[in-house]
Amino acid sequence: MTETPWTDTTHDIGTVEGLRALYALPAGASLKKEADHVHPMYRPFIETSPWLAIATLGTHGLDISPRGDAPGFVEVADDHTLLLPDRRGNNRIDTLRNIAFDPRVSLLFLVPGHNEALRVLGSARISVHPDLLARFEVDGKPPRSVLVVSVTRVFFQCGRAVLRSGLWNPAKHVTRDALPTAGRVLEVLSQSEIDGAAYDAALPERQRSTLY
Fold it and tell me: Which residues form a coiled coil (predicted)?
């Protein structure tokens, strides 16, 4: 079989020493920006962010999942603690199952229009304390649970990735018809057990009525 660049492993790097031979040492700013708590300079990133991705590890390997709500939906309880409500979803509970297996988490916060991202590392536990649930009620609907995140490392990620991607540039936004719809994906993967057109027609109202 003909070898391709992505199947040829002879040029792979598998050690830290090999990586260090390829990459220079990080500049001082890359190290100085790290804190072991939610520093006052980093708190505004969390309090204005409407979106994050949370990475977890479970029995089936790594997972990353999006979370989003009104800006500041993650509460800074204190310098070492974040509170993240678990809003209504599809009940796969991939993230929660993983945390029950391994509490380590990594969060990536984005703020629309800003190039820098915020990275938070720590561990999480799943709480259903009545006062915590009531604290995050929206329209009289509490979350099913709240993640209590113990923070160990916080630092910002420079904006090169966002700049290169043009993430916030409206001229680069992808039109809806350029990608398959959720219904179309489900119809194909379910081998037509799911009616894709019917799913897509009902989806906007279903999402609006079940946000919380």
Answer: none
Q: What is the DSSP letter of 178?
A: G
Q: Which residue ranges make up each domain of the chain?
A: 28-165, 174-209
Q: Distance between CA 201 and CA 204 in Å, rounded?
A: 7
- Pairing label, strands 75-78, 145-157: unpaired
Sign, CA dihedral 93-178-203-185, equals negative
Q: What is the DSSP letter of 24?
A: P
What pLDDT is attached to residue 3? 86
Rounded distance between C-alpha atoms, residue 147 and residue 144, angstroms: 10
Place of tokens 């992808």: 174
Check residue 2 and give its pLDDT: 80
Taking a C-beta distance cutoff of 8 angstroms, is the pair 49, 72 a contact?
yes
Find the helix or strand (DSSP H, E) in which 154 lies: strand 145-157
* Segments in the chain below pLDDT 50: none
In the CATH scheme, what is the homologous superfamily, with its name and number, of domain 28-165?
Answer: Electron Transport, Fmn-binding Protein; Chain A (2.30.110.10)
Cα three-residue angle 146-151-156, rounded to 5 degrees: 110
